[in-house]
Amino acid sequence: MIANEEYRQFLESVRFVYGYDFTEYAEASVIRRISAFMDSNKIASLQDLGKMILKDETEFEHFIQEITVNVTEMYRDPLFYKSLRKNVVSRLATYPFIKVWIAGCSTGEEVYSMAILFREEGLLERTVIYATDINQDALQKARDGISSISNMKTYTENYLKAGGKNSFSDYYKAKYNSVMWDKSLRQNIVFSVHNLAMDRSFNEFQLILCRNVLIYFNQSLQNKVINLFYESLCPFGFIGLGNKESLLFSEKQKYFEEVDRKEKIFMRTK
């Protein structure tokens, strides 16, 4: 059992040494993942864990890889992408140059999903997709553009439900037990480390996707991140959230209107 005071001191030490701030993440979720990490690595106490990761950056990177959540798949929640095609893409097409931010991109499945969607809609050549995550190991996997072949049946089904226009197999090459996404999809993608809890806005975007990330933050950090997205969106830009996430308690709620209530797509109105 991890005591509250010990837990807070541990997080403050991590923030001081490495600049990673988990103090406003949902406490029960973080404690559960820290405990699982300690159990799997046979670490007896939080004090012992602190000694290990605060003195060894390699061990800290291993810790970050384990406790950050990397659940993702191609066209996860397919109807969300179908709604993007129907309600958002035609408006994005009016811009001469399109900037998209996928925040919390994990191992990149959502990024490649968007690249394929934009290619099919004739927009990829004038689009830059900025894909960011706190987990450097996940980002490297995203850059590599490799997925397990065992997922392709599910991914293909999702792609078709999302309104895909071609054969999904056109976008990857199978090799042994893996698939490699078409290199041309990566030409307009910029992968970079970004910490939503600590870092600021770095550009102005027409579309921001941050799906199934806010659920791991407490209310205060959720509000802070929504403010960051508001500052990062151009007027009449769009934001897409996960199906369990909302702008309801954000102080910026009044500056957004619902584009699709069920699929959690919103437009900044001013």
UniProtKB/TrEMBL annotation:
<dbReference type="InterPro" id="IPR029063">
    <property type="entry name" value="SAM-dependent_MTases_sf"/>
</dbReference>
<dbReference type="Pfam" id="PF01739">
    <property type="entry name" value="CheR"/>
</dbReference>
<feature type="domain" description="CheR-type methyltransferase">
    <location>
        <begin position="1"/>
        <end position="257"/>
    </location>
</feature>
<dbReference type="InterPro" id="IPR000780">
    <property type="entry name" value="CheR_MeTrfase"/>
</dbReference>
<dbReference type="InterPro" id="IPR050903">
    <property type="entry name" value="Bact_Chemotaxis_MeTrfase"/>
</dbReference>
<protein>
    <submittedName>
        <fullName>Chemotaxis protein CheR</fullName>
    </submittedName>
</protein>
<dbReference type="GO" id="GO:0008757">
    <property type="term" value="F:S-adenosylmethionine-dependent methyltransferase activity"/>
</dbReference>
<dbReference type="InterPro" id="IPR022641">
    <property type="entry name" value="CheR_N"/>
</dbReference>
<dbReference type="Pfam" id="PF03705">
    <property type="entry name" value="CheR_N"/>
</dbReference>
<dbReference type="InterPro" id="IPR022642">
    <property type="entry name" value="CheR_C"/>
</dbReference>
